Amino acid sequence: MASGKFITLEGVDGAGKSTHIPFIADTLRSFGMEILLTREPGGTPLGEKLRELLLREPMRPETETLLMFAARREHLEQVVWPALQRGVTVISDRFTDASFAYQHGGRGVPLAKLEQLEQWVQGDFQPDLTLLFDLPVAVSTQRLAKARDPDRFEQEGADFFDRIRNAYLARAAKFPQRFRVIDSGQGIPEIQAGLQTILMALQ
Ligand code: TYD
Question: Where would you tag: which of 8, 16, 148, 193 has the fewest CB atoms within 10 A of its CB?
Answer without folding.
Answer: 148
